[in-house]
Amino acid sequence: MGVYLHVPFCARACPYCDFDFEVVRRPDDSGYVSALAREFEERAEPLGRVRVDTIYVGGGTPSTLRGATFSKMFAELRARAGAYEPREVTVEANPEHVTREWLLALRAAGATRVSLGVQSFSRQGLVTLGRAHHATKAREAMETIHALGLDASVDLIVGWPGQTPAALAADIETIRDAGVAHVSVYALTVEPGTPWEGLVARGARAPVDEDAQADLLERCERSLESAGFRHYEIASYAKPAKQAQHNRKYWRWRDFLGFGPSAASAVATQGGGLERRVNARGFAEWARSTGDQRAILDRLDPETAGREGLWLGLRLLEPLDTSELEARFERPSGWARRRLARQFELGNVLSPSAERVVVAPGRWLWHDVIAHDVLKGT
């Protein structure tokens, strides 16, 4: 089973972000670890039944924590897990926080992978996106991660106002030259309630041009594939054997447990359903809550869980075994193909064999349309 740990601290707020975080000068490392240990203890029963084989530390900005804090976090988890055998441990970081000393502490704690929030190497892009680092620091961070034997995954944001094909090409060239093995490419979206929404409303930022954004996303795919990356999930590209193993659990309906404010868990229930648990948002509220007060529980019936499983499964750009999906969610044979009938007609989804379906080449840009069709209740 995979375990997700949410770190809710950031040094500054990015205008496009709607994740659960609070801006602090000095994160309360010890208070966070103590609250995390209490949640581990409260949920010792599910933890004690599982073998933890992947860990993902996200946020917020985990790199605001001291390097030594990760050893304490993982030790608390190890003490309560049925078995602790992580083969992939990812920690998110911002380039401006990455130092050799911090990475050495991370490696000593058992981390194998750093997910670096670069977003852009362009000065214009970094200013537009409200990022704190400079391109030089991002390059240095990638080099140091690589030199210490850790895998680096780099996040890029595509479609910010003023981004040109030349700027995107320069970003990808920088990533290629740094020897990065995994890239996540996210289309900029204006989420409700974020500062960016207000900036657009006031005319201080241009609205997202979706056609221009789609062109850039296609350019990005061509460039990364020509550089030896495989486009294996809508937003993910990897060199051989470097796919994100933790994230694959989400897309192939494996159980996972989440700890920390706003963290989600999903565990299969008897009969093909799903129980989802989502913790309270906000560090203070999560830290002072106990037991069921800490989370919202949502039980999905097999039909609803199956639709969600189909939607998630089609995020991977590789054939989906519909018989495996139907067995997992206890759906009748042929259920998945019937749910996708309209998408077959539109040419968005293909069937390379009787029991496999896959998003058609180039149609990954249509995934929101496919998802709407799959998830609707009729």
Can you tell me about this structure?
By secondary structure, the chain is an alpha/beta fold. It folds into two domains: 2-248, Alpha-Beta Barrel (TIM Barrel), CATH 3.20.20; 319-378, no CATH class. Helix content is 40%, strand content 24%. It has 16 helices and 17 strands. The protein has helices spanning 29-42, 44-48, 67-80, 100-109, 123-128, 135-147, 165-178, 195-202, 210-226, 245-251, 283-288, 302-313, 322-328, 335-339, 341-346, 367-375; strands spanning 2-7, 9-10, 22-23, 51-59, 83-93, 113-119, 151-158, 182-187, 230-233, 236-238, 256-259, 264-268, 274-279, 295-300, 320-321, 349-353, 356-359. The strands form four sheets. Strands 9-10-8-7-6-5-4-1-11 form a nine-stranded mixed β-sheet, sandwiched between helices. A three-stranded antiparallel β-sheet has the order 12-13-14. A hairpin with a 2-residue loop joins β9 and β10 (236-238). α1 packs parallel to α3 (67-80). It is globular. The chain starts with a strand and ends with a helix. The model has no long low-confidence stretch (mean pLDDT 93).
SSE layout:
Blueprint: E1 2-7, E2 9-10, E3 22-23, H1 29-42, H2 44-48, E4 51-59, H3 67-80, E5 83-93, H4 100-109, E6 113-119, H5 123-128, H6 135-147, E7 151-158, H7 165-178, E8 182-187, H8 195-202, H9 210-226, E9 230-233, E10 236-238, H10 245-251, E11 256-259, E12 264-268, E13 274-279, H11 283-288, E14 295-300, H12 302-313, E15 320-321, H13 322-328, H14 335-339, H15 341-346, E16 349-353, E17 356-359, H16 367-375
Parallel strand pairs: 1-4, 1-11, 2-3, 4-5, 5-6, 6-7, 7-8
Antiparallel strand pairs: 8-10, 9-10, 12-13, 13-14, 15-17, 16-17
Helix pairs in contact: 1-3, 3-4, 7-9, 12-16
